[in-house]
From TrEMBL:
GO biological process: attachment of GPI anchor to protein; GPI anchor biosynthetic process
Quaternary data: Heteropentamer. Part of the GPI-anchor transamidase complex, consisting of PIGK, PIGT, PIGS, PIGU and GAA1. Interacts with PIGK.
UniProt GO cellular component terms: GPI-anchor transamidase complex
Record-linked PANTHER family: GLYCOSYLPHOSPHATIDYLINOSITOL ANCHOR ATTACHMENT 1 PROTEIN
Gene that this polypeptide is encoded by: GPAA1
The organism's taxonomic lineage, starting at the top: Eukaryota, Metazoa, Chordata, Craniata, Vertebrata
The entry's keywords: Disulfide bond, Endoplasmic reticulum, Glycoprotein, GPI-anchor biosynthesis, Membrane, Transmembrane, Transmembrane helix
Topology of the protein relative to the lipid bilayer: Multi-pass membrane protein
Protein name: GPI-anchor transamidase component GPAA1
Length: 609
């Protein structure tokens, strides 16, 4: 505190930070990247452990015997789907009632703003079929959910058969909480524009949920899917519970579709851990739900998806074994005395046995954000006109800063036009692609989806030609003070945006910081225009999204060519807009209304005259 309260020492510190500003910023950037890459090194991570005492032991005896019967039910379910040409709602209701469940249905419809070409639909409609297994000796205030997503095609039939088999088996067991077996033919969300029938049957407060996805009679491994809407993750104890029972029963388990390696001290083992962690980062940054469980998380219900994988390995797992694994997990969840809360909610996982907590990965982002603050401090000092230090030096020093720089007559006119025009461009990027799709379809030979995506790209590109002319409306044109004030505001604005984003979704905030921080730190109007403009475009939010598409495909071991990557890029844009409309994903409005306008402020600085 003495260093900051003493005017002479404070002045010396400020002088040091401004004199070594560029070297410190370079070191912070490299240190931030190195810190993040080091998170996947096993000695730097924490080993997973069960924090909830009620689930600390797997000493339960799993006796589920009806795996073959469940597969027979799955084949019967598939036959009825082919017979009716869609979801056999009546058959499912009768079958669940025959197993002793209280069965109810709920219909829902939602018209999309434009057609979803990936799933070939313009309207989302379906029926949720849910059966409640009442707890015979409990107050019926709590519930667990086992769900299986259904679709008209042949996917996930085995999950429905196993769900029905488990429901019949659980009927003979003693549960202290109610059990909800749900067959979902689509997503349900209390979102604007969703039409749905009211719930007729109600159970207790949902404590946890598992979504089961099986599309083959033969399963070689089970993959755990954690990423939910807007980057939300379930409590880490749910992942620990899954891994504990996989180890006990002998089921091969993966995360991000990758098996764990034991050779962490080799280059191959470290690379494998980095790839696994990066896949989680990219999925979390997308903001979309990667399974049915993702929509439970928005209601503070701990949920995950268990996805069966048939990769033709020699290791095989039958339906009976999977049923016993689910039985063990639900029997342990049945012992909960309160909601899962003792373990972490913010984490990254390079493997199922190790995790990186928020206290370990946030310094990587903090090092990048420090660059913005250091550059802002440097501009602050350059803009200030400190007077001679006297006995009241501190007061006079601060007063001169405020008088010369923070005067409304100087500050507001310097950046107000740029802020307004940049954000109006962002509003256009957010609203016009959907609103103008009909006009685009009438005048150009494109579909509705293509019209929305191409309009968004056109507005994004056209925005580059607008803000850099706003200097004509700014007082003090041609002076150094004008662009420095604008850059100072842009740096602080970007620091706040990235900081708030990282608190909600670290992965998204960190990825944006990797590209935006160098652009914000280096841009000035005195740099070579053509070369700097190219670098600014390559570091823009749109190009960052394009890079992520190619990196994701490489990590998935499914590399694509440049044309294929471009088509995936267009698909990601359309899906981002649809996810925002259907589920309430915040990534698209964040990029369009806040991140892109902030980048336009930096673009304005480059073309300052």
């Amino acid at each position: 505190m003495g260093l900051l309260s003493d005017p002479n020492r404070r002045k010396a510190l400020t002088s040091l930070l401004t004199r070594l500003n560029t070297p410190i910023c370079v070191v912070c950037y490299l240190a931030g990247i190195a810190w993040f890459m080091g998170l996947a090194f096993e000695p730097f991570t924490l080993r997973t452990y069960m924090s909830e005492n009620a689930m600390g032991s797997t000493m339960v005896e799993e006796r589920f015997p009806a795996g073959e019967r469940a597969l027979a039910t799955a084949r019967e379910f598939a036959a009825h789907k082919r017979k009716v040409g869609g979801m056999p709602v009546e058959w499912l209701v009768k079958t669940m009632q025959a197993r002793g469940l209280e069965v109810f249905t709920q219909s829902f419809t939602r018209t999309l703003p434009f057609p979803d070409e990936n799933k070939e639909r313009y309207m989302v409609r379906g029926t949720n079929i849910y059966g409640i297994l009442r707890a015979p000796r409990a107050p019926r205030t709590e519930a667990l959910v086992l769900s299986a997503p259904c679709s008209p095609d042949n996917s996930n039939n085995q999950a429905v058969g196993l769900l029905l088999g488990l429901a019949q088996y659980f009927r003979s067991k003693m549960f202290y909480v109610e059990f909800d077996c749900t067959s979902l033919s689509g997503f349900f969300s209390h979102h604007s524009g969703m039409d749905y029938t009211p719930l007729q049957g109600r159970a207790g407060s949902i404590q946890a949920a598992l979504s089961l996805e099986l599309s083959s009679d033969v399963i070689t491994s089970l993959d755990l899917v954690l990423e939910g809407l807007n980057g939300q993750l379930p409590n880490l104890d749910l992942a620990n519970l899954f891994h504990a029972f996989c180890q006990k029963i002998g089921v091969l388990c993966t995360i991000q579709g990758k098996l764990q390696r034991g050779d962490w001290d080799t280059a191959e083992g470290y690379t494998h851990a980095v790839q696994t962690m990066m896949l989680m980062v990219l999925k979390q940054a997308s903001g979309r739900p990667w399974g049915d469980h993702g929509l439970f998380l928005r209601y503070h219900i701990e949920a995950a998806s268990v996805r069966g994988i048939n990769s033709f390995r020699q290791y095989k797992t039958d339906a009976t074994t999977i049923g016993r694994l689910l039985e063990g997990m639900f029997r342990k969840l049945n012992n909960l005395l309160e909601r899962l809360h003792q373990s972490y909610f913010f984490y990254l996982m390079p493997s199922l046995t190790h995790f990186v907590s928020i206290g370990y990965y946030m310094p990587a982002f903090g090092l990048l954000a420090t660059i913005l603050l250091l550059r802002a401090l440097d501009l602050w000092v350059q803009l200030g006109t400190p007077a001679q230090v006297t006995e009241d030096g501190a007061v006079l020093f601060i007063f001169s800063y405020y008088k010369s720089f923070l005067s409304p007559s100087v500050l507001v006119p310097s950046f107000k036009p740029s802020m307004v025009i940049s954000h109006l461009t962002g509003v256009a990027l957010y609203t016009l692609p959907v609103l103008s799709q009909e006009t685009a379809v009438e005048h150009f030979p494109v579909s509705e989806t293509e019209a929305v995506v191409l309009t968004a790209i056109a507005i994004y590109t056209a925005g580059l030609a607008l803000p850099h002319n706003t200097h004509r409306f700014i007082s003090g044109e041609g002076t150094e003070q004008g662009w420095r004030v604008l850059k100072l505001v842009a740096l602080l604005y970007l620091a706040v945006l990235l900081g708030c984003t990282a608190l909600i979704n670290f992965s998204l905030g960190f990825i944006l910081a990797i590209t935006l921080v160098p652009a914000a730190a280096c841009v000035t109007p005195h740099m070579p225009k053509a070369l700097t403009a190219l670098a600014m475009v390559l570091l823009s939010p749109g190009c960052t999204l394009l890079y992520c598409v190619f990196i994701f495909q490489e990590l998935q071991e499914a590399p694509v060519t440049l044309p294929e990557g471009w088509m995936l890029f267009l698909s990601v844009i359309s899906q981002g807009i649809l996810d925002h409309s259907l589920y309430g994903s915040l990534v698209y409005p964040l990029l369009a209304l806040l991140i892109y306008p902030c980048w336009l402020l930096l673009w304005n600085i480059l073309f300052w005259k």
